[in-house]
Specification:
The chain is built from 12 helices and 4 strands. It is an alpha/beta fold. Strand 2, helix 3 and strand 3 form a beta-alpha-beta unit.
């Protein structure tokens, strides 16, 4: 990948989109992860006002520290970058306390994890509306269009997606080129939605390198039978997630009424 040309292309695309939309800037949720670090850096480089929003909910201290390190670095480099921190922990707990009592289960835990992401989306749009800005997404290609590893109307609720055509490996490559803090580049990817130490790989069952490989193999028309035992396992994980998460990747179905019925 020609990192210089890719960076320039994304920055130009962001600038053009903002100018045509007649908005004042960008709002980006910054988590301490590689994707949000890259997305916020690219937005900052447009010269448009870029608001970095921290939204911890029972967040691990290491994640908070990485986010703060990144934002501090951006503010030092770019005068158009500002920050705001909204601790949503009490909001999340209030929401939980209003729910009818249900025995804890994997379904409940997943629903609450997605609720965290949706509270953050609501917060980002509050600031976007306040400052006439666009919410910039932080999803990459294998997450958004491969396995659907994001929350619908949570971190998937955005106005534009600057890095959604980059594989995770390309995200790392571009982040290194743009000097994203090493602490972020070296950290294990995690969505941080469960309040524990589980990584993305723990949740998915395969690494991003394996998922990228499986995505390429599927695009080439390969099947699981073409591979070795571990490759088969990774390929089947990708296939299953790609299938069950299609509802995130396709437009919202619209029931079209036949003309003769109207």
């Amino acid at each position: 990948m020609n990192t210089e040309k890719v960076a320039f292309h994304i920055i130009s695309w962001l600038k053009d989109y903002a100018e045509k939309s007649k908005v004042k800037g960008f709002v980006v949720g910054v988590s301490g992860g590689i994707d949000s670090a890259l997305a916020s850096t690219l937005c900052a480089k447009t010269g448009f006002p870029t608001l970095c929003v921290e939204m911890p909910i029972h967040q691990a201290e290491s994640q908070v520290n990485r986010a703060e390190e990144h934002i501090k670095q951006l503010k030092k480099q770019f005068s158009n970058v500002s920050e705001v921190r909204v601790n949503l922990t009490s909001t999340f707990e209030d929401f939980k306390n209003m729910l009818p009592p249900i025995a804890s289960s994997d379904a409940v835990n997943l629903s609450l994890a997605n609720t965290r992401a949706r509270l953050r989306m609501t917060t980002l749009y509050y600031f976007a509306s306040l400052y006439s800005s666009l919410v910039a997404g932080t999803g990459n290609k294998v997450e958004d269009f491969g396995v659907g590893f994001y929350t619908k109307y949570g971190d998937g609720g955005v106005d534009l997606s600057p890095i959604a055509d980059l594989m995770k490996s390309e995200v790392y490559e571009l982040a290194a080129y743009l000097n994203v803090p090493n602490s972020i580049q070296e950290a294990q990817p995690t969505d941080g939605l469960f309040g524990d130490s589980r990584t993305d790989e723990d949740q998915i069952g395969a690494s991003y390198d394996e998922l990228e490989w499986a995505m390429q193999m599927q695009n080439e028309g390969k099947t699981a039978n073409d591979f070795s035992e571990r490759q088969q396992e990774a390929f089947k994980i990708y296939e299953r997630l790609n299938k069950i998460n299609q509802h995130k990747m396709i437009p919202i179905p619209v029931c079209e009424i036949p003309a003769e019925f109207k």
